[in-house]
Structure formats: structure tokens, C-alpha cells
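Write out the 3D structure for:
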Amino acid sequence: MPSAASEPRFALIDVNNFYVSCEQLFQPRLVGKPVVVLSNNDGCVVARSPEVKALGIRMGHPWHQLQREARLHGITAISSNYTLYADMSQRVMTILGGMCPAQEVYSIDECFCDLTGLPQPAQQGHRMRERIAQWTGLPVCVGIGSTKTRAKLANHIAKKQPQHGGVFDLETRDVVAQSRLLEEIPVDEVWGIGRRTGESLRAMGITTAAALRDADRARIRQRFNVVIERVVRELQGVSCLDLEEVAPTKQQIMASRSFSRTVTARCELREALLSYVARAAEKLRGQGSLAGAIQVFIRTNPFKPEVAQYANSTSLHLPLATDDTLTLGRFALAGLDLLYRDGFAYHKAGVMLMDLVPCSQRQASLFDDPEAIDRRSRLNSTLDAVNRKFGRGALAVAGAGTERGWQMRREHLSPAYTTALEALPEVR
């Protein structure tokens, strides 16, 4: 039999209340206070401090409906600062990647690490937590289990039971103790179990993580699918999900935003679409892909039925797959010309790059000018390099505009503390 030290051990590390923690890190006055971070255009609550959670304010609640609660409880609202969050995420993931032999970055605020072979994985979990706190100032919790699903549950326990010091190894408990812990976790808190599946499981009498672990796998597979059966196997300690050390290549790339105000002029829609194309093309080049088609869409606000409604989209196939911002922008504007109708107040627009293929499959044309292709490639590389260094949008195509009155509303935006010299905190 393999030794305990050689059995799989996964750690799931995530930053507590990530968006809020990033804001509190640079604004200590907010620590211990009710704080929410808002979605695009300051629309809905997307992150909450523990104090806000205690007030019963749910995720996704429209901010304009919370003005009374905000005044009553002194809630501070902050616009989403994606530049800050992405930079802090990269720092956390880089630190963790240096503390384990294999890592899967699962989302902006959490990753899996391979701790297999360590005699006391929990000790490494505490070291990870302490180093993240010391080097970034952010609080994390670490859950450890023999499968990724069990590690997720262990992380849930580490968060909910502070007596564990932010680190919990599920495999150090005996079977009885494990069952007792899993009986306290609702079934829809299990990784991979969505709301609808959770409702169906409850209807079958499976209401907790422990009950799902003990369910008959054949019955689960027959009632649902092999994916849910795999969740049961993972809960039982059978590792079915390996670490994905390299993020899978996206099959589609979308860039879209709701406008801060309604847009009626075609020229403003052109600016917005060119801005979105630039963002999508940068992502496309970042994953080493080419796009063979582009979809463009525009729409009015469906939540305002009192105004005239219009929504439409179109897809255009490119003669040759490309990652060139200017070429993609030209086709996006051609799509807009097909879609645009005068007399409507547009609320949102976007583009989707489709039919993606690896750059290694780039096709040549008989009429290609090698020098022109090289110049365009160097231009795109320069665009990406400048925007990585100085922030998104620092260098853009002229057609994307300079005023951009349509840009999303962020009235409570904090500074880009870690990526802009002018935003460095001042010590007085």
C-alpha cells in the first residue's frame, strides 16, 4: 500500500473577501467597517465585507436600492478597481507558485497547489498563509484534502471555523469527525453542485455534503450525469480531477460593457466597439490564438420597457484568421454598419472573437506583403507592451476616441496603488 505521505494532497488557497481586502489594504480606515465593491457602472454589489454580510445584504443586490441601508449603517461603496485586483492577484499567485511543485490558478482569488509527499501539509499551509500576509498584506485561508473537491470543503471549514487559524486539513480527522463536519455543509456548497442540481438532490433527500458523499454512485449517474458522479467519487476520496497547470485555451473571447449613459450616435458606438476590439485582441494574442470570425452586437436597455427596444447581432467571417487589432476593428465597424438603426437609445455593445485557432496554424495569402505583416506584428506587440507597463488604454487606436463619455461609470473608484506612480500612497 502507498504511504500516507505519497497519497494525493491538494491545497485550495483563496483570499478572503478579495476585492474588499484589496481596498482595505490601502485604506486601513475601512478595516472593520461595512464595505461593498460594486459591479460595472456601480450597478450591483459584487463583494462584501463581513460586516455587510452580517447585515443580510446579498450578492448582486442593486446599489441604488441600498441607499437607506448605506446611510443607516455607514456602508462605504467602492467601484471595481480591476487594475488593482489583477495586480494583487498576480502577486499572490506568484508567491504560492514558488511554494509548491505544481499550481493551478483557478480564479482571480484562488488556486490549487499540490502538496503530495509532504509529511505535514498543514504546516506548509500555515507557511503559505503567513508569507502571503507578510509579503502582500492580504488574508487567505487554506483547505487541504485528498481530492480537489475535499480541499474545497476543507477551505470552507477553514473560513467558517476561525479556531483552525485559517488552515484546515480534512484528512487529519477520522471518518466519524469528517462525517460530522460534512453534515454541517449544505449540499449546494459542494464544488460543482449548482443551485438547480442542489434542489434536485434535496428532493432526493440528499441535503448535506456528507449525504452526497454516501450516495449511490450509479443512482447519481443515472439521475444526473457523469460529472456529478465524479463529485461523489471525489467526496469519497477518489481523485478524479488533476491539476491543470496550464490554463485551457479559450474557444471564444468576448469584450462588452454597458454604457454609463445611453448612446444614440453611431460615432460613439464606433468608439466603444474599437475599444472592445482592442481589449479582445490583446487577450487573443496573449493566449497565442488567431480569430477566424467576429460577432458584433448592440442593444437597448431591456429593463426600460417604456423606451423603444432594439437588439441585434451579426457575425462576419474573416478571409484569413488574424490577431491584428486594426483588421479586427475594421470588420467590427462593418458589422456595426449592418446593425445600426437611428432613433434608438443604446445601452450596451460588444464583440466576440470566434473560430479561434493557434498561431501556428496561420495561413498565408498569395498577396501577402511580408514587410507589411512584420510591421503590423511589431505594432501590436508595442501596443501590448505599452499597455502592460502603463495600464490598459494608455495607448489605443485613434478611432476609440479620447473623451469616451460612454465609458462605464465608476464614481467611487480607488487609485491604482500598485501600477501607477502618481497613485502611490503618501506618508506625511
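Residues 1-5 have pLDDT under 50 and may be disordered.
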